[in-house]
Write a structure and sequence with these properties.
The chain has 13 helices and 13 strands. The chain is elongated. It has a five-stranded antiparallel sheet, sandwiched between helices. The protein has a five-stranded mixed sheet with strand order 7-9-10-12-11, covered by helices on one side. Strands 6-8-13 form a three-stranded antiparallel sheet. It has four domains: 114 residues, no CATH class; 89 residues, Beta-Lactamase (2-Layer Sandwich), CATH 3.30.450; 55 residues; 153 residues, 2-Layer Sandwich (Heat Shock Protein 90), CATH 3.30.565. The chain is an alpha+beta fold and 452 residues long.
Amino acid sequence: MYEPYPVPDLARDHKKFRYSSLWTFAKQDLRLLAFLLVIGCFIGVGIGYFWICISLAFAIFFIFQLRSLYLVNEWISNRPYDVPPNLSGIWGALLFNVYRAQRQERVVQAEMVGLIDRAQSSLVALAEAVILTDELHQIEWWNPAAERLLGIQMSDRGRNILTIIRQPSFIEYFNNIDQSPDGIKIKSTVYDEHYVQIKLTRFGSESRLLVAYDVTRVHNLEQMRKDFVDNISHELRTPLTVLSGYIETFTDQEDLNPRWKRAFDQMHSQTRRMNALVNDLLLLSRLEGNKQIAKNQIIEMPSLMNQLFDDAQAYNVDYGHTLNLDIDSHCDLIGSDTELASAFSNLITNAIKYTPKGGSVTMGWHDDGQHGYFTVQDTGIGIDPKHLPRLTERFYRVDSARSRQTGGTGLGLAIVKHVLMQHNAYLEIDSIENQGSTFRVVFPKERLYKPE
């Protein structure tokens, strides 16, 4: 890298240069003007043409300034990246400032280019596919992994990405990114029986960053798990039915020894619990496999809420809670009545089970014009906030000992989550330990139906 023209003090001492005033540089021009005027004065006095010589001195100084201006203009116009001409005075200071700013800008540009090259090299090395699209959804850039996973080719530059990845689920996701924050999984168009997880991020006005990676192995493992759970649940139903039948037969005998009766009662309780677990597993498996089934029944919410309230009163006999029903909405719901009734019932029975005897449980149906709300509020034991993010996971238990006492399967809230996902709804949970919890199911406006 070359150095600027020699201005020793300024070039080596930027701090000194930075705080020097314009007068420091103007003095060089003033010294030159004074020198020319002195020479002109002596010559003018000697030959008797004083003012003419003084005028010539000013003219020579002016010519020097015009020459400097010409050199500055010629350098800026034709050789801006070369070493500037060696000028003194104000023009020299101007050139030095321009040249120094130019060099600093080139250093910044070189650093930015290097940073961009490193970022691009890292993106090229990624196993995940990366695609950049502009405001018109046209492909601007992609890495080699995008060619392998998504079949992007050189001829696709400038094409609308929706004309290349044309699955309806992707188009729906592309137009409604916020509705699927975790992205979507689609079947690969490049390899048979392969699956790709796609995540879109919006930046700028309408530009998008697409990141995709192969999830075939995870998909296959998940499918194996589902098949195993489904198959083993079906296989368990028959022996459990047989066991339950024989246990009930022995339990109903009047001459049964009290010691044996206690044992048979415990066996009966545990087989009921296993039956409940198997039924929940089968229901969860069915929900996961029927995501595309239309949920378009019109559910009369006052009727459903009264039915849920009657069921809750029957379940509440052993607990003695105060049950309340609060309905202040005239909207009905569009969905699957059996699935929603199962989800709502799960929330109600959980509230009853985990509220100490003599507590209060309130179930309600409300709307604000934009959303519908099914709520269950209790005065129970509450939940530590650290457990809330994982509460809808399968078999997740806040307290295993307490769950064994209540006979829970650990699948109730997982079933609720899947039912709500299929109805474009979601679950909100507010809870304070030892004070109570509020479970709120939020339905979008599209799921509300106002009767005539």
